[in-house]
Amino acid sequence: MSEWIDPMLPRPFRVRRFIQETHDTFTLELDAVDGAKPFAFLPGQFNMLYVFGVGEVPISISGDPTSPKGLTHTTREVGLVTKAMRQLRKGDYLGVRGPFGTAWPVEEAAGNDVVIVAGGIGLAPLRPALYQLIANREKFGKIVLLYGTRSPNDILYQKELKQWRAQFDMEVYVTVDRATGDWRGNVGVVTALIPKAPFDPLSTTAFVCGPEIMMRFTVQELQKRGLTNDRIYISMERNMKCGIGLCGHCQIGPTFVCKNGPVYRFDHIEELFGKREV
Ligand SMILES: Cc1cc2nc3c(=O)[nH]c(=O)nc-3n(C[C@H](O)[C@H](O)[C@H](O)COP(=O)(O)OP(=O)(O)OC[C@H]3O[C@@H](n4cnc5c(N)ncnc54)[C@H](O)[C@@H]3O)c2cc1C
Ligand code: FES
Questions:
Q1: Which residues form the domain of 209?
Q2: Where along this sequence does the record place binding of [2Fe-2S] cluster (predicted)?
Q3: Is 258 annotated as a binding residue?
Q4: Which of 41, 47, 231, 277 holds its CA 20 to 30 A away from the CA of 104?
C-alpha cells in the first residue's frame, strides 16, 4: 500500500499527458496533486480510478515500477466510466485509490527464462513486469514476449515493441487475428506462437494476461510444452467496488480478486478458473 492513509478515500491526481494508443485505447500519465512523493507499486497491481461524478473502475498500472515518477494507466474504452475517462485531458483531475492486489513474481523468476503471453489490452498490466525484467536483464535467462491482437490497428505500444526487439536481449513476437493494411507479420492466435517459442520449458516462468478464453488456451499450450502449473501466473478480472477485500463483489470461491489477485499462480486458481459465478 502507498502512504495514503484511508484506502477508501481517492487521492487527487492531475493528467500530465493523454496518449491515444489505438482507436479505442488511451494512456493517461498522472501526477499527484498533493506533492511530489513517488507512487511506489509492484508490476501487476491496479488502482481504482475515479472519474469525478461518473464512477470508479479498477485499472492496472502500466508504467515503470523501477522509476515510479507519477502514474501511468492504459485503458480501453468500453462503457460509462472508461468513456468519461477518455474525455480527460492535460490538467484534468482524477481520483486514485491504490495500489491494490498481488504482483507478477518477477524477482522469484530470477535465474529462469521468462515467457510473457499477452492478448490485446492484457499487455498493459504486463508492461511494468517487462520494465522490471529489462532493468535487471542480467538476472534472467531468455525473455520472450508473445503478443496477440485482433488486428494491426489494435497493437499497443508499437514504438516500444520495436525498441525492445532492437535494443535488448529479448525475443518479441507479435501476431494478429486478421491482417489488414500492409501487415506482413504473423497471422493467427497468440497460442499458435507457443509451440516454437524459444524458451526452456524446464526452467521457465510464464506470465499470462488477456481475455479468459485466451488465457485458458495459453495455459494448455504452455502445459503441452512441459511447464508445470506452479510456474504459470495469470491475471484475473472481476467487477470491483471496494478494492480492499470488504464488499465481496470480486469474490471467486474463497478468494477475492482485489486482494488475493489479480495475479494468481495457476495451481492456486485452477479449479475456479473459467467459472463466472462461484
Ligand atoms: C484488476 C483489474 C485490472 C484491470 N485493468 C485494466 C486495464 O489496465 N485497462 C483496461 O482497459 N481495463 C482494465 N480492467 C477492466 C476495467 O475495469 C473495465 O473495462 C471497466 O471497469 C469498465 O467500466 P465502464 O464503466 O467503462 O464499463 P461498464 O459500463 O461497466 O461496461 C460497459 C460494457 O462493457 C463491458 N465490459 C466491462 N468490462 C469489460 C472488459 N474488461 N472487457 C470488455 N468489455 C467489458 C460490460 O459487460 C458492458 O457491456 C481491469 C479490471 C480489473 C478487475
Ligand atoms: S472489490 Fe470489494 S471485496 Fe474485492
A1: 104-234
A2: 242, 247, 250, 258
A3: yes
A4: 277
